[in-house]
Design a protein that fits this description.
Elements (H helix, E strand, L loop, with lengths): L3 H11 L4 E3 H7 L7 H13 L3 E3 L2
Parallel strand pairs: 1-2
């Protein structure tokens, strides 16, 4: 699956703070279609754009 739309939305969420939360990512990613490799791809793409993932 192409996760670029999830990454794009996460980047928008992170514009003010520099990070997104795990809860925000969970809302963006449909759990029925998500594989571990997909999660890793999204996290890598966010890391490449210097966006951190925060607990809260």
């Amino acid at each position: 699956m192409d996760w670029s739309e999830v990454v794009r939305k996460a980047v928008i969420l992170a514009e003010k703070t520099g990070y997104v939360t795990f809860d925000q990512l969970n809302e963006l990613m449909p759990s029925t279609e998500t594989e571990p490799e997909d999660i890793e791809a999204v996290l890598t793409a966010l890391s490449d754009q210097d966006i951190w993932i925060a607990e809260e």
